[in-house]
Protein: PH domain-containing protein
Amino acid sequence: MTIHSGQEQLIWEGETRNVTARATGGRVVLHYRLTTHYLYYETGGIPGTRQQQIPLLDIHDVDVSQTLIQKTQHVGNVLVRVPRPDGVMEVATLEWIPEPHHVRDIINQAVHAMRVAVHGRQVGERTHLGVHRFEYGAGQAPPMASGLRPVRAGRIARDDASAALSRSS
Structure:
């Protein structure tokens, strides 16, 4: 589920800095882009690439892995974990990214900002409707609508005015 909070804006973009990219003079490079709504990434290599996107709300965890060679070149892999409906945790890998720890932090901040925006919108909608889950304690029923009163099972409650009208008919 994706709930958009306005126009999609670019937060970060980057590309691979691996041996293939250097050997081909930058012609075979995987591109990555983080916006306020999605993480766009490419997978593949010389034979072809595949472009994919992940809604920020679907991102479960973000980690960094680095080999010894990557550490010496100040690059690493950013691992983005996304749970799928069948319960399997899929991992999208942003490969050979410069400053991978910084990129991980930027993704985490964007995910957090999206979740805060969605939560704020949900609370605002509930408040606008006059219902908020924190207005009454555990085990308590929500307040009755104006003019209605609780009744025994099997009976319909009416306010005093509608009851008077039905008696006069």
